Sequence to fold (357 residues):
Amino acid sequence: MFYGIKPPTDLPTMFVPFSTVVRTHFLQSITSIGYITTSMDVVAVFPDTLQIWPKVKECLSHDSDYYLFSDFQIYHFIDYGFIEAFVKKGELTALSVDKMLDVENCCCLTPSGILVLSLQRNHFLKLGIEQGPAVKIKNIDNRNLIFINLKEECFNPKKKNFQRVYNRLKATNLKMDIILLWEPEDIKVCPSSVASYFHGKGINCHECNINYGEKRNYEVMLPKFNTSNVEMFEWLGIHLLGGPEINDDDNTQEYLSTYQCPEDSEIIGQVLTLQWAGLVSSKRILKLLNIMREYVSIRPGIPWVALHIHGFDDAPLSWNLQPHKFTTRGDNNYTIIFNSSKNVKVCKTFTTLKKIC
Fold:
């Protein structure tokens, strides 16, 4: 309680209960990452590490170009030639950009082939799309979410539902700026083929790159893996924000912003932090996690490593295809900390859809 004000009983951010997962459940943590729709920032933390394998650095940044399409007409996603050539022959991830989720129309296309339209109520009524075998609709406050399964067998040009969706999207001329990446099943096929496809249709296309950076901190007070879950993730958050770690012998006053490391901490010579920013697919993140597991397995003395994934604030979906909301807080993160014994701590945060009174 602060100034006599009681804390809220229903916080706008929901935290999955912290858990230390035993070895047999490590794969469950990996599987959860597969439900990430889109990622904006990925951070890997390696304590007691000065240099890291090149393949760790290159995992998300090598050959990972994605594309920005300006004034993209959404009906192009429904084009059956596009569905057959790209959606069904690889993992395609797309997201609208420069949009405010709760007050503007947004969209995304998930690797599983689900096209999600988040539309304001008046635009939804104007569009006139109805629910069907491949189309699901959810109402959230003043907007409607339309889920279109592009991989559904019944969703093809021979069906009336397909034709209505295609014709209504084309007639209403719904446009957005889109970022998109495609990872083909066939390694012989170039991922840039999707850019060539849309360029041939006269759509403006710009190539984008993943931004990569790294930093090293020296003489760091590091919590041990058996530190309480709350303190562990709090320390990691402070570290990623670049905040100072306060030692017991530092002369500090009781300012509200003062942070002190957990009691069960030790001084580590250096901590290496790697960061990637851009449109990153869940497939790439899973690859990075597996490389980190391999690295930890040959370094049994390393205290632990961490992987933090920050989703787009204005993405229509967060984890496991759940509708997202920004006005309450917009949290959309996933963090996993593990050691060479395959013990795991996981924290997943997302925004509740409940109204805050």
About this structure: The radius of gyration is 22 Å.
